[in-house]
Specification:
It contains eight helices and five strands. The protein is α+β, with helices and mostly antiparallel strands.
């Protein structure tokens, strides 16, 4: 059994500062693991407009055990591979944050798992694969980059990157 206890220390303005001691590690409101849990809670219950559709809007929640008892989340994290620099990932993006559906990945690994949007292989793309195919066909026909951009209503820089093979090489 791990030694665990919760104590309060005076924080800013005399308010109690929460501190947990788990597996010999002190976790307080300044600890990266505390901030990881805070971010998870925020995405599910107080999401920014840009994140709303991917978490709160989909009904994604934190399991009651972690939501109601931070110590439970901290202990699970420490026993399941959390290290500084890792982020939490839901294995199935359509399910909640809960022990059976979570793992820790580097930010780079987590970013690669973002599901495609707009029919693309990159979540942040402003164009679809169909638009890329059409762009490449128009380039083969000899149209100028600026004319293609106007015709498809996309940035001339995107068309330029496609023509130089900087992006969308897989198509």
């Amino acid at each position: 059994m791990y030694k665990r206890y919760k104590v309060s220390r005076k924080g800013i303005g005399g308010r109690p500062k929460k501190v947990w001691m788990i597996n010999g590690i002190t976790i307080n409101t300044d600890h990266k693991l505390y901030n990881l849990r805070y971010g998870m809670m925020t995405r599910c219950y107080n999401a920014k407009p840009s994140e709303f559709n991917h978490y709160q809007g989909k009904g994604i929640q934190v399991c009651d055990e972690w939501k109601d008892n931070p110590e439970s989340f901290f202990e699970w994290s420490l026993n399941n591979g959390w290290k500084e620099g890792l982020s939490i990932d839901r294995i199935d993006a359509n399910k909640n944050y809960e022990p059976s559906n979570c793992q820790f990945l580097t930010i780079a690994e987590n970013t690669m798992r973002v599901p495609p949007r707009k029919g693309t292989l990159h979540w942040n793309s402003s164009i679809t694969e169909e638009m890329v195919i059409e762009t490449k066909e128009l380039l083969k026909q000899g149209l100028k980059i600026i004319d293609i951009a106007k015709q498809l209503n996309i940035s001339k820089y995107i068309v330029g990157d496609i023509s130089k093979g900087k992006t969308w090489r897989h198509i």
